[in-house]
């Protein structure tokens, strides 16, 4: 009979060296990851971990079984295989499937080390806690989620609590798990973002020194009270509560059928709501940085496995094939998009560094740059020092221990035979040496990148050259290039950005053109999808819409006493994309379970005139919809749809940020 644990121990022994060396290489490259604990698991255990979001223990709920079944079938029918999963924790925990080939295990390990670096240094992950992000040593997410699992399990097994009630309550909360204020630190997220309260007219009258007689005759006290209340209500509408779950924790109720009124939550309900809200904030960082994080891990994995030959000769073809499949997956691929964006940032930074030096050469200006610079000569001059580019046991004598690119201590050990430099040449180099060894503009695929710099960018560089340093020749200028500029810039950006801010800042026209991105839209006229635009601005808008609020509709609390009837008023912050009304109604039913009183949702819907649709089909153009504000109300039994008051519609209507990515003539 097969002993699974013996197989796991055997695999762990085989991977001991790759794990140690990958961690050392990651740090040599300038990464600063959390320490990582690696676990060897079998096929079924891996599927369970993926279903549980990367953790071994989660609270009892049917969603995990559904996720497990989906993952198992994807693997069974060849729709995608999971090689690893890693979680955001300190230390991080990574799970490797024991059936993976050694090439796949090495790829996974290098990928995980980069993820652990991103977890440890990205500020959006640091928001879970006090938001300072300086000390994350006490994160211990695995222990937190295990405590949550035990707590909810206790409620499920409590004979005084109906299991179906617990599951139904969890279902209701999970429908709203993304309605949090993910841009604020968890410790302060429940605090409402409010402007200064509107001034009471009475105070203004006091400042004007209006006499009592005038006030008594001109301003009725009851009218002043109504005005003050109206102003407060208006202020609430202008400053919605973004953390819906926090609002429900404080003001939510459950409907009691016996008394026919809303009553306080049971203690277990308050506890479950707080637990699920906490977990929503914990996972928010991963949802907000999916492209950035996967791209970061893919970039460094590729550099370590390919450029630094962490994959042995007999493993490289297997690795390259699997990496190509990952990057070639159809649809919006976060690995591909993220990696290409990071490579673009690196190339642009390095190009700017080289251009800055060349513009300081006598006789070279931003106007004549493309005419007088020999880009082939520059490429040859930029090539890494042969002593750095190719390191073997026979070439160790060519390295100078006083060279800042060389790790003197490691070089001495290598010369004494303590380091297998033929297998791990990077060990005798510093981060500075590795940056020169892997300078992006020297790679074959990027050889023409410097020559494609635009005159407008050259003009900006020249305009802000405040020093008067000059070089006598191109060779002197290139010799002064900082090879670490690109990596340093990448590390700076990975600290502060999420997917939305990164795409907004760095998805340029040049990037869109070189990587062949385009948008497509559903045509109301033809009833199918059509390519709409390849313009950079349209591609950026489409991607920003895809990643804003995790790609989900943004909904906030506008009033907890709507119509002075204790009704909840939610608002869908419309951005040009209409809600699926039927799906929205199902969510309102769940929200009612957390409010115990009627709930309302403000939104904007697009209505099409049938005659206009027919004309559009005949003329092969898009019909123009009419945007109408609606308020959907649910009272626990039935739905009502009302026209939305104009002042309320203004609160949720799209502003100057327009996500319509269809040019006016896209079907002509």
Automatic annotation (TrEMBL):
Residues 13-356 form the SpoVR protein-like N-terminal domain. It comes from the Archaea. Residues 553-604 form the SpoVR-like C-terminal domain. This is AbrB family transcriptional regulator. The lineage of its organism: Archaea, Methanobacteriati, Methanobacteriota, Stenosarchaea group, Halobacteria.
